Amino acid sequence: MNNKKKNEGQTDFSYYGLYLLDYLRTNKFEQADDTAFIRERADRAAETYERARLEGYPSEGAQELAMDTLLRGLRYSKYAILREVVENEFADEVPEEKREAFVLKLLPLVGNVFSVYDLSDDNFALSSDYDLLYTELTGATVLYLDEYGV
Q: Of 13, 20, 55, 81, which shows the fewest CB atoms inside 10 Å?
């Protein structure tokens, strides 16, 4: 695909819009192609920043509030969690140069594992559910590797 076409309509994103777009793409969130979602989130983040500055927050504090607004509910992607499991638990079995492809191949096969967990909770990683999910993904990955290899 031509880069011009791929980035068409995205050059007019604000700072927050571009940041969110990159974040969504990097972490393989489904919303990465949802321009309306990105614009709405970016607008709310900009409004949060502006309101905070008017209330007397220093720019760093206003920026922190804006980023919280921008990323609320998007702290944990299925892709990022599965990649963490593969990197931490299967570094010897899955060579670094094959990890990306392996995670992308495995991700749709473990989708049902994610279905019982609320990844939109910004404190999910601090919960016992995170540990359960991590363990289930580790087990699913072991089963996949035993059956199909890398």
A: 55
Residues 29-42 pLDDT 10s: 989 999 999 999 99
Q: What is the pTM of this model?
A: 0.75
Residue 9, classed as helix, strand or coil, is coil
Nearest residue to 101 via CA among 35, 37, 60, 150: 150
Per-residue HEC secondary structure of 17-59 comes to HHHHHHHHHHCCCHHHHCHHHHHHHHHHHHHHHHHHHHCCCCH
Please give the Cα distance from 140 to 47 (Å, whole number): 43
What is the model's pLDDT at position 4?
43
Cα–Cα distance, 103 to 79 (Å, whole number): 7
